[in-house]
Amino acid sequence: MQMITDLVRNVQIIAAAVILILLFFAGLGIYMFKLRKRPAAEKDCDYSSFNRKDVTAYIRIDDVTEDMLVSDGGKRFIAAIKCQGFSFADAEVEEKLQTIRGYITFFNVLDNDPIQFRQSARDVNLDDLIQDYQEQMAKMEEHRFSLNLDYTDVKAESENPELSAEDYSIYYDRLKQMQRELVSLGYQMEQLNAQVQYMQAISGENAEAKREEIYIFDWQYNAVDFSSQKLEDQEVYQRADAQLKAKANAYITALRNCGVHAKRMSGVELLEEIRRYTHPVSASKGTVEDIVQTAYDSICVTSDSLRSLEEEFNQKIVEEIGEEFQKGSKLHGRRRKHA
Question: Maximum distance among all alpha carbons in the chain?
Answer without folding.
Answer: 137
